[in-house]
């Protein structure tokens, strides 16, 4: 499969086999997801994006919901192969009895149901999808898979990584005076630690300055807190992974989000990196604190 600046995952398969869950999983993997695209538009999408310098990855769901457009899918996949584009076709399969149960539980109508039983509709759909199934690179039977297991399977197939390797710890420092972040999964208050703000030569610095970081990190209570908090987070990561979480946001707060929370966040990020746990650190109120200081100086 030749390399291009565009990667495509085509998600197709039987109605009720889990395409919605698969697309959610691919969205977590940073794919740009398009649901129910008419197959005839696929060449146009490749043509448009081929001139784009940004490397984008697309996940496109196509199935019998497209009704009269669906007959073009086999042709579109063959065209995609001849175009030299980097792509994979993921076909989701499932046992008939499981599909019937899923439609019954969700009270959804099968998209092909007209006359006859739902088993007749499923059998008809299998016939329509037979050629597409033959063109698939990956076939996943979702009969016994929970949504989180389907996500893990897709992660493994498409990235070569386990679901445990795909969790990112998002560490955010913030100041309580500017409000608690709404997007944090876990929040911890470090206002119990000695505050460099009251030391004149450190007041207008931040936790990214070495002198401030050394001051914050030197205290026994700081060392004990970091050790125990890191141990807690590390112990929770496998459980979050098993639930299929792709990102865990940890908020570290002090009064102004300038000194203690910044230094603690940076130290946690350093330790995660040492243990090869994917993470990123951001300081929500770092710029806010800097702007306030600039205003004070003028």
CATH superfamily of the largest domain: P-loop containing nucleotide triphosphate hydrolases
Residue share in helices? Answer: 40-55%
- Which class best fits the helix and strand makeup? alpha/beta
Total number of beta strands:
9
User: In CATH's first tier, which class of the largest domain applies?
Assistant: Alpha Beta
List the secondary-structure elements in sequence, H or E: EHEHEHEHHEHEEHHEHEH
What portion of residues belong to β-strands? 15-25%
Rg of Cα set: 25 Å
**What name does the CATH topology of the largest domain carry?**
Rossmann fold
In total, the number of domains comes to 2
Q: Tell me the major beta sheet.
A: 5 strands, parallel
> Mind telling me which CATH architecture of the largest domain this is?
3-Layer(aba) Sandwich
Task: Report strand order across the widest sheet.
Answer: 2-3-1-4-5
Mean model confidence by pLDDT: 83
Distance between the termini: 60 Å
| Global shape | elongated
- What are the segments in which pLDDT stays under 50 over at least 5 consecutive residues? 1-6, 288-298
DSSP helix count? Answer: 10
């Amino acid at each position: 499969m030749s390399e291009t600046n565009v990667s495509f995952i085509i998600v197709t398969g039987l109605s009720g086999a889990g395409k919605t869950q698969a697309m959610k999983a691919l969205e977590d993997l940073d794919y740009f997801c398009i649901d129910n695209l008419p197959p005839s538009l696929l060449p146009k999408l490749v043509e448009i994006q081929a001139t784009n310098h940004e490397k984008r990855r697309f996940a496109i769901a196509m199935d019998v919901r497209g009704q009269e457009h669906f007959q073009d899918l086999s042709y579109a996949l063959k065209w995609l192969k001849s175009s030299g584009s980097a792509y994979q076709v993921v076909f989701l399969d499932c046992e008939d009895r499981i599909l019937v149960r899923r439609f019954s539980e969700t009270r959804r109508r099968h998209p092909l149901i007209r006359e006859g039983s739902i088993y007749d509709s499923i059998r008809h759909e299998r016939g329509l999808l037979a050629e597409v199934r033959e063109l698939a690179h990956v076939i996943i039977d979702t009969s016994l898979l929970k949504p989180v297991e389907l996500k893990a399977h897709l992660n493994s197939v498409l990235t070569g990584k386990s679901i445990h390797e795909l969790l990112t710890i998002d560490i955010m420092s913030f100041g309580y005076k500017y409000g608690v972040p709404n997007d944090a999964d876990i929040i911890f208050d470090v206002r119990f630690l000695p505050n460099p703000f009251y030391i004149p030569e450190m007041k207008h610095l931040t936790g990214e300055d070495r002198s401030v970081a050394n001051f914050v990190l030197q205290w026994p209570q700081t060392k004990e807190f970091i050790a125990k908090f890191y141990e807690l987070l590390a112990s929770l990561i496998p459980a979050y992974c098993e639930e299929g979480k792709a990102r865990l946001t940890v908020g570290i707060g002090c009064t102004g989000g300038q000194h203690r929370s910044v230094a603690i966040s940076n130290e946690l990020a350093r330790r995660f990196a040492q243990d090869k746990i994917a993470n990123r650190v951001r300081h929500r109120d770092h710029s806010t604190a800097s702007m306030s200081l600039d205003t004070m100086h003028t």
